[in-house]
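Bit of a strange request maybe. I'm writing a small parser for C-alpha cell strings and I need a real example to test against, not something I typed by hand. Could someone generate the C-alpha cells for this chain?
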Amino acid sequence: MIDTRLKVFRSVATLLSFTKAANELFISQPAISKHIQELEKEYGVQLFDRIGNRIQLTRAGQLMLDHACKIIDAYQNLDFDMKKLTEKSGGELRIGASTTISQYVLPELIAEFRKHYPDIRLTLLSGNSHEIEDALAAGRIDLGMVEGIKRQPTFKYTPFMKDELVAFVHCSNPLAQQDEISLDLLRQTPIVLRELGSGTLDVIQKKLQENGIALSDLNIEMNLGTTEGIKHFVEHSLSMGIISVRAIYRSIYEQVFKVLEIENLKMERDFMFVEKRGVTAKLQQTFKRFITKDYNV
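Reply from user aminoacidic:
Good idea to test on real output. This should exercise your parser:
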C-alpha cells in the first residue's frame, strides 16, 4: 500500500497550503503537519519554506514532489493491474472539468461509470477552462475536461463530445417573438456572458471575430462566473445570454426560454480531454474509453 505521507505531501505541494490539503484529503490540519514533519525528519531536509502565511517548495521539496508523483502513478497502475486479475478495477482518479461539463455532462456519466467500476474512486474539481488547465499543470488533477479552444502546447487535447452554444432570451422578452436575429441586432441587444478565462467565452469571441465582430462591439451588460447565474439573470431581465444548449434543454421544453438563431453565426465547439503529454495512466484510459464509447469523435 502506498505511503500515505506521499499523498499528503503531494496535496500540500500542489496546493501550497496545509489548510487546503486538509480539506481536499478530509483529514485534520495537525495530521497533515505530522506527515510532513515525518518526511522531513526521515530525509533530514526541509521540504517547505515558510514565508509569513505562505509556503513554497524548497529544492528538496521539488525533488520530493517529482518522485512522489511518479511513485503514486506507478502504484495506481499496479493497483489497477492487480485488481484486473480478479476482474475488478480499482484506484483513484482525480478529474477536473470546466463548469458546463461538470454541471450538465458529467453527473449522469459518472453515475453510470460508478455502476461499472465501483472500486474506482473519482474526485471532481470544477472551474473554468483556464483554472482546470492550471490545476493539471500543478499536478492537482490527473485528467482535465475543457471547452473549446486548444491552448497550451505542453498539453495533449482529445475531442470527446460535440456541443453548441446558443443565444437565448426569456419567453416574455419581445425578442422571443423572433426565430432569428441579425448581427446588427446582436450588437444592440443587452447581453450577459461568461467571465474571462471561460472556455465558453473563448469560443464566442473566436466565432464573432470570424464574422468581423469584437466583444467590445457588443452591448455587454454583465459577465457572470457560472452558466446558472446567466440563466437566472436572463430569466429576470430583458437581456440575452449565450450558453451551451445542454444547459437549457429542459427550460426550452418548459417554455421558459426561447433560443434565437443568429444570422450566419453557428457557434459549435468540442469538449476535450486535456492531459500532460506522455504515457496515459491506465485509469485515465479506462475513464476516457467509457466516456467516448457512445459518441463519434
